Amino acid sequence: MKLSSVNSIAEKLAEYLIKIGASGDLGVKDVYVNNFSPLSDLPESFIEINGNGGLGQLTTERGIMEYNLVLSLHVEQLPSGARNAIRENFLLSRFEGIFNSTLEIGNFHYTLDVKNSVFSGSDLIAGYTSKVLNINVKIY
């Protein structure tokens, strides 16, 4: 794998989520990858997928690599400032089953790191609640 293709790891996952309907009318409005999210005029809910750390080699042989992504789901808070738990739970339900086993997209093998949830709360983006999860990726 060429270092220049590391951005495609997040892009492939985003394409897959869009394809299966995690975004769109009933899902999140946008999926942003590789730190290319707008600073203003954010939609009522959106996903960010970004790299988290460096590209590592699993073996002494070339070709098997690992990488980590963070998948962040952001939901706009209610006008009262309370979290929109109904919308949060609905959007999280769109992800049910995706990571029950390894998700294979080409040479990329994505697994949810259930032991290391990164964040759950309302301090990352003003006016939004966030769920941030680690995704481990093995590249063959």
Q: Features of this protein?
A:
140 residues; alpha+beta; eight-stranded mixed sheet; 2 helices; 16% helix; elongated
- Helical element count? 2
Helix/strand/pairing category: alpha+beta
Q: From the alpha-carbon coordinates, what is the Rg to the nearest angstrom?
A: 16 Å
As a percent range, the share of helical residues equals 10-25%
The H-and-E topology, N to C, reads as HEEEEHEEEE
* Model regions low in confidence, pLDDT < 50 over at least 5 residues: none
What overall form do the CA principal axes indicate? elongated
Q: Could you give a short account of the major beta sheet?
A: 8 strands, mixed
Q: Work out the strand percent.
A: 25-35%
Mean pLDDT over the residues: 84
Number of strands: 8
Distance between the termini: 9 Å
Explain how this protein is built.
The mean pLDDT is about 85. Helix content is about 15%, strand content about 35%. It is an alpha+beta fold and about 140 residues long. It is elongated, with a radius of gyration of 16 Å. Strands 1, 2, 3, 4, 5, 6, 7 and 8 form an eight-stranded mixed sheet that branches.
In short:
The chain is an alpha+beta fold. The chain has helices at 7-19, 85-93, and strands spanning 30-33, 45-51, 56-57, 65-76, 103-105, 108-112, 119-121, 128-139.
Topology of helices and strands:
Layout: H1 7-19, E1 30-33, E2 45-51, E3 56-57, E4 65-76, H2 85-93, E5 103-105, E6 108-112, E7 119-121, E8 128-139
Parallel strand pairs: 1-2
Antiparallel strand pairs: 2-4, 3-4, 4-8, 5-6, 6-8, 7-8
